[in-house]
């Protein structure tokens, strides 16, 4: 963090976009599309969801007018930083069988991308994924690489990661489904960003957290912030934290979940769960993928493709002629126990950063906190055996 | 190079839309023609050779007593049998009659009902013979068809994804119409394969690719009720293009007053 924070007037926001463009970045920011806020290309401040807020509840997301001109009160939408690093679908290599068989790696283009509006939970989620995809990187402490190999770096992810410039926005408003405060990841961005903005009355408090961030500051029309601005920012962020009504109690969570694998609550949630996979798709830390080869009709070439997959898809647990998690009960249990418990053993951190997306974007409104609480309320309960 | 595969496309009770997807392959048809011999394809050619066939693609449901016999012959003549489309795979839209009195329809519509030889139920091919792979959709998707064809040509088991439409929506960056608009979208219980076409245009999925491998249609029905749909509307959501597929029937069951006629007689 810099010693001196500065102020950027809201009216000067275009200067930030233009400075990034001038440095060769493709600039992405929050935009309204089809009833939600998603990340897309922006060229000017008017592209932002000015005066829009999201009302989020389990299984429900509605955008509303706030009646003010603030830029970042919308909180968040279904997308985190995940799709810009771990691509939803991409080609890993191609094979040609013309003449001799040859393989060609197809790395992504190393194009600088700046994302404006990443939240603390998005960045925390990215840092969780770093432990999966950048495990071979010496910047990740060996302790955190877990006991599962942890020596490989995914070059596709790494290429995008090295080219990503992050303009964080500290939340001054939380959605009803947010619970970052209890997961100790937000609402203030802690690390891993280049610039952080906190939206005040008429200005943004701007803090740099990297050399690239510092360099960008030089190109912006800034004023020095006084102590009043800094404390106003701190108060607004604290207010967002305090407003969070959901909190996850993670006390003894590993033992709690693994001692209750036959708890009747798993049957109860399986009655409600659609096994659609939305929770895993929107989760900023889920990294599961499937790989397939797509062959041309003449058989001369093929592509090896990777795409987001989910533990809710039946095929995901198909091993050598057997389905190892044929029931929804088992698949939901896999998701929750991995996310909240075995992740800790595997990566030295929880797989949940408290963004609440899996609650909002679950079509049937399943809330993982309620599921954990239900087990915590009746530990040791046993389901009736399958007939 | 291996010998050219002998391919047949057979039609049963259907609209021909799925067969048209073969013809719509256009340029790829030429590539295909170098590797396969199309020996039976009424929609495309008057050459109608007898079996044996290496691969038979079957469009249409089993709807008449002639169909009942012919599907046995097709199966006996084919090394591999792949159904194409909602009709062949699930009984199709025409399976709506399975819930009604078929005889009454025939008497009401035809001047000489005695000439009509249709069965009381429209059923999928798999209800009668062994099926090696099923391509869903109304109509089937060209990209999926191409992938299945290249798998067949590579002599591997055709790979047909069984996951939900939601997975495709999220990968594509579509915004969920159920969560943002309260639309009764069938995507969570429907099989991917269409490229999440309807949600991409901000409308709810109506399930034309049939049920996903292991979804929970009953739970989705309860969600629809909470969104304000009546029991009748919920039944109609599930009982549509793939209404006779077991998972869609299960989705409708909790809300329906009228059981399928044949099952009532059991
Ligand atoms: S588990 Fe849910 S709340 Fe936790 S990080 Fe994933 S999407 Fe967010
Ligand atoms: S979970 Fe926290 S950091 Fe994430 S959007 Fe909500 S308040 Fe902001
Ligand atoms: S928990 Fe919700 S989002 Fe996740 S698979 Fe089940 S129904 Fe879908």
Give structural notes.
By secondary structure, chain A is of the alpha+beta class. Chain A has 13 helices and 16 strands. Chain A has two domains: 6-242, no CATH class; 253-386, no CATH class. Chain A has helices at 13-22, 82-85, 120-133, 155-162, 180-183, 211-217, 227-242, 253-258, 265-272, 278-282, 328-347, 357-360, 368-377, and strands spanning 6-9, 26-33, 36-41, 52-57, 60-65, 89-96, 102-105, 113-118, 164-170, 195-199, 203-208, 223-224, 289-295, 301-308, 318-319, 322-323. In chain A, the strands form four sheets. Chain A has an eight-stranded mixed beta sheet. In chain A, helix 9 (265-272) crosses helix 11 (328-347). The longest helix of chain A has 20 residues, at 328-347. The radius of gyration of chain A is 22 Å and the shape is globular. Chain B has 266 residues and is an alpha/beta fold. Chain B folds into two domains: 5-153, Rossmann fold, CATH 3.40.50.700; 165-265, no CATH class. Helix content of chain B is 38%, strand content 15%. Chain B is globular, with a radius of gyration of 19 Å. Classes of the chains: A alpha+beta (387), B alpha/beta (266). The structure holds iron/sulfur cluster (SF4) (3 copies). One iron/sulfur cluster binds next to helix 10 of chain A.
């Amino acid at each position: 963090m810099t010693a001196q924070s500065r102020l950027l007037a809201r009216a000067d926001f275009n200067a930030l976009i233009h400075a990034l463009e001038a440095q060769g970045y493709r600039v992405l920011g929050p935009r309204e599309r089809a009833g939600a806020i998603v990340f897309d290309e922006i060229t000017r401040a008017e592209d932002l969801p000015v005066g829009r807020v999201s009302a989020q509840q389990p299984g429900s997301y509605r955008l509303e007018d706030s009646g003010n001109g603030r830029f970042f009160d919308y909180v968040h939408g279904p997308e985190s930083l995940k799709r810009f690093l771990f691509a939803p679908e991409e080609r890993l290599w191609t094979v040609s069988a013309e003449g001799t068989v040859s393989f060609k790696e197809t790395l992504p283009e190393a194009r600088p991308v700046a994302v404006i509006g990443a939240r603390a939970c998005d960045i925390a989620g990215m840092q969780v994924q770093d432990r999966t995809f950048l495990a071979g990187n010496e910047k990740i402490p060996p302790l955190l690489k877990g006991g599962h190999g942890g020596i490989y770096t995914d070059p596709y992810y790494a290429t995008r990661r090295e080219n990503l410039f992050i303009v964080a926005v500290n939340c001054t408003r939380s959605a009803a489904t947010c619970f970052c405060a209890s997961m100790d990841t937000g609402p203030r961005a802690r690390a891993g960003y280049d610039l952080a903005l906190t939206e005040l009355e008429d200005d943004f408090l701007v803090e740099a957290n990297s050399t690239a961030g510092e360099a960008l500051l030089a190109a912006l029309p800034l004023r020095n912030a006084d102590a009043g601005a800094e404390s106003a920012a701190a108060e607004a962020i604290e207010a967002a934290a305090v407003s969070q009504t959901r909190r996850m109690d993670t006390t003894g969570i590993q033992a709690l979940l693994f001692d209750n694998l036959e708890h009747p609550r798993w049957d109860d949630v399986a009655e409600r769960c659609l096994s659609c996979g939305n929770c895993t798709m929107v989760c900023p830390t889920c990294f599961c993928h499937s790989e397939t080869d797509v062959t041309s009709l003449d058989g001369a070439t093929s592509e090896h493709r990777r795409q987001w997959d989910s533990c809710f898809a039946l095929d995901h647990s198909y091993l050598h002629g057997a389905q190892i998690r044929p029931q929804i009960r088992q698949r939901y249990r896999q998701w929750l126990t991995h996310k909240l418990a075995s992740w800790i053993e595997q990566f030295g951190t929880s797989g949940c950063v408290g963004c609440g997306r899996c609650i909002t974007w679950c079509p049937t409104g399943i809330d993982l906190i309620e599921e954990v609480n239900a087990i915590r309320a009746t530990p040791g309960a046993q389901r009736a055996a399958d007939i | 190079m291996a010998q050219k595969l002998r391919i047949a496309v057979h039609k049963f009770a259907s609209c021909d839309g799925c067969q048209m997807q073969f013809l719509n392959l256009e340029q790829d048809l030429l590539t295909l023609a170098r590797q396969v011999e199309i020996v039976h394809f009424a929609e495309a050619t008057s050459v109608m050779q007898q079996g044996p066939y290496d691969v038979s693609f079957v469009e249409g449901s089993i709807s008449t007593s002639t169909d009942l016999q012919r599907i046995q012959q097709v199966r006996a003549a084919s090394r591999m049998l792949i159904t194409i489309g909602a009709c062949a795979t699930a009984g199709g839209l025409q399976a709506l009659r399975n819930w009604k009195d078929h005889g009454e329809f025939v008497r009401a519509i035809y001047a000489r009902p005695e000439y009509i030889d249709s069965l009381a139920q429209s059923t999928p091919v798999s209800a009668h013979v062994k099926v090696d792979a099923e391509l869903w959709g109304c109509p089937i998707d060209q990209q999926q068809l191409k992938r299945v064809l290249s798998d067949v040509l590579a002599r591997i088991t055709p790979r047909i994804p069984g996951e939900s439409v939601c997975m495709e929506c999220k990968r594509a960056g579509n915004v969920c119409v159920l969560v943002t608009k309260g639309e009764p979208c069938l995507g969570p219980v429907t099989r991917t394969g269409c490229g999440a076409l309807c949600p991409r245009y901000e409308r709810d999925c109506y399930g034309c690719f049939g049920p996903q491998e292991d979804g929970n249609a009953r739970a989705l029905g309860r969600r629809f009720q909470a969104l304000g749909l009546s029991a009748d509307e919920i039944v109609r959501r599930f009982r549509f293009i793939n209404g006779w597929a077991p998972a869609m029937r299960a989705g409708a069951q909790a809300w329906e007053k009228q059981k399928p006629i044949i099952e009532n007689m059991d």
